[in-house]
Amino acid sequence: MIINLLLSIILLSVPSYTVKGEHVNPSPIQKEKKGYKAYAKVLKPSEILCLSKNIYFEARGEKKIGKTAVALVTVNRLKQSNKYTSICQVVYQKKYHKCQFSWACDNNKKVNDQYSFNICRNIAKNVLMNYNIIPDITNGATHFHKKNIRTKWSKSLKKTVIIGKHVFYKL
Fold first, then answer.
1. Distance between CA 123 and CA 64 in Å, rounded?
2. Is pLDDT of 33 > 70?
3. Between the N and C ends of the chain, which has fewer C-beta atoms within 10 Å?
4. What is the pTM of this model?
5. How large a percentage of the chain has pLDDT more than 70?
6. 95 by DSSP, 3-state: which?
7. pLDDT at residue 11 above 60?
8. For position 15, what pLDDT does the model report?
């Protein structure tokens, strides 16, 4: 609850402006997080959409902190990758002909709840624009799964935290 409050204060205390008709929060110039590559401060609508969909389909039933955690994992994967250069590449990444995010392989996935999607979209924008100043509540996680799922891959990773209905891991 305290983390959720701090996260809300940080996200709401940053001034905002409009870019291409989109209301977004600017990221102040910050020292980069250790070990992470710089991320362009200019957001592409396609990047916002990919991250919004990932949050929506992976965590729409979660509280704001759970949705933010999923967004952070997605961005953490990008930051720690030498292979991918965009959020969309991370979201639609395939390994051994399987999608890293299960919903991404389902071509019929559609947003049915616009209100929830707009919340996910706002979280996506805030995480992308403020990544360098948002506390990483996942402790550097690059993977997650629902608590009620048993996975083979998680045994080789280090568990970092449980947030809502998800367990988070890092390499």
1. 8
2. no
3. N
4. 0.75
5. 74
6. strand
7. no
8. 39
CB atoms within 10 A of CB 32: 12
To which residue do tokens 């930051």 refer? 79
Q: How far apart are CA 134 and CA 13, in angstroms?
A: 12
Cβ atoms 146, 155 nearer than 8 A:
no
CA angle 60, 105, 152 (to 5 degrees): 85
Cα-based angle 37, 42, 43 (whole degrees, multiple of 5): 95
Q: Is 144 helix (H, G, I), strand (E, B) or coil?
A: strand
Spatial neighbors of 68 by CB under 8 A, at least 6 apart, are 7, 123, 127, 134, 137
Q: Which of 58, 64, 87, 71 is nearest to 12 (CA)?
A: 64
The two structure tokens encoding residue 157: 């990773």
